[in-house]
Design goal:
The structure is a single chain. The chain is mainly α. Helix content is 74%, strand content 0%. Helix 2 crosses helix 6 and helix 6 runs parallel beside helix 13. The chain has one domain.
Length: 320
């Protein structure tokens, strides 16, 4: 029972991080040491869908489906999903309202959290050679350039194939900290369309376009997750240091999106010393508080043995 309550509480923490713009569930999972466990959970789910697909094609039996289903760690996943879902439903509008009222302050807090999170994979680097440095630098420059490009505005009813592509790419993005699914939608030009589709479905007035868009997104996501989860798992197992260097570069580049120093009138990003002294001081204090709090929580949890390695190798159960 205590295990279920612990995982439910961790689900609440994950959702709180997911509600903070720029932080997300992935980054929060790294902070609380759940990243690898969640990867394993999603791997088990992907194995179930893979086995189910094989059953439809006559290449697997009902026994195989049952084995794949019972291999899913429900004691871990279900309480986390429940805690996450309930928290998201309860506080999404509240956090959204806070961001609308205090955008630069929330960005400063997010900046401090992500900055502290970067230290997690850095400390777990088993090797720090020129290869890790080059990969970090290349990743940082590539994503910094990408995040500097203005997203595509798009239309309310873009090509349905973009939703399929969006679902496929989202399956990769949802496993990586520093980049959100909404960012992918923005760069594909389907951000506004996806928001409209979800609103239509929630309102209970689905159109043919909304139904097909959501269906193609789900198909793309399910196909993608069976590939992405294996790829990330393989990279962590075989090239852990290089993968961590990639994550550090990605998260460092994502600070570009969270940059809290902006002109209030135009929302243009500026250098810290171009900010007014009171505003600069406020942002710096918020960044420092967020950074220190996250670092202290992790340190206390590590000292009490509550946190394992976020990227430690776990045994994955593969159903043949």
């Amino acid at each position: 029972m205590l295990t279920y309550l612990r995982n439910f509480f961790l689900g609440i923490i994950l959702a709180c991080g997911g509600l903070i713009p720029g932080v997300g569930l992935q980054t929060t999972a790294i902070i609380v040491g759940l990243y690898d466990e969640l990867l394993n959970f999603f791997f088990q789910i992907s194995e179930f869908f893979k086995t189910f697909g094989q059953y439809i094609m006559g290449k697997a039996s009902k026994v195989d489906i049952n084995t794949a289903f019972t291999s899913i760690d429900g004691k871990l996943g279900l309480p986390i999903i429940l805690g996450t879902a309930l928290t998201l439903l309860a506080f999404t509008q509240f956090i959204g309202g806070l961001f609308d009222r205090f955008p630069t302050q929330i960005s400063a807090i997010s900046f401090g959290i992500v900055l502290a999170c970067i230290l997690v994979p850095y400390k777990e680097l088993s090797q720090r050679t020129w290869r890790e440095f080059v990969l970090f630098l290349a990743t940082f420059v590539a994503f910094l350039t990408l995040f500097s490009i203005s997203p595509i505005e798009g239309t309310i009813e873009p090509s349905l194939l973009l939703f399929l592509a969006g679902g496929f790419l989202a399956s990769f993005v949802c496993l990586l900290p520093g980049i959100s699914v909404s960012t992918v939608f923005s760069y594909l030009g389907v951000g506004a369309a996806m928001t409209s589709v979800v609103a239509i479905m929630i309102a209970g007035t689905p159109t043919l376009f909304a139904f097909l868009a959501l269906l193609l997104f789900l198909i793309g996501f399910l196909v993608g997750i069976t590939i992405s989860i294996r790829l990330v798992t393989y990279l962590i197992k075989r090239y852990q240091s290089l993968f961590l260097a990639f994550l550090i570069g990605l998260m460092a580049a994502s600070l570009r999106i969270l940059w809290p120093f902006v002109l209030t009138s135009t929302a243009e990003k500026i250098l810290p010393w171009q900010e007014s002294l009171p505003q600069f001081t406020q942002q710096l204090i918020l960044i420092t508080i967020a950074f220190v709090l996250v670092s202290m929580v992790r340190k206390v949890a590590e000292n009490k043995g509550m946190l394992a390695s976020s990227f430690g190798p776990k045994e994955r159960t593969v159903i043949n």
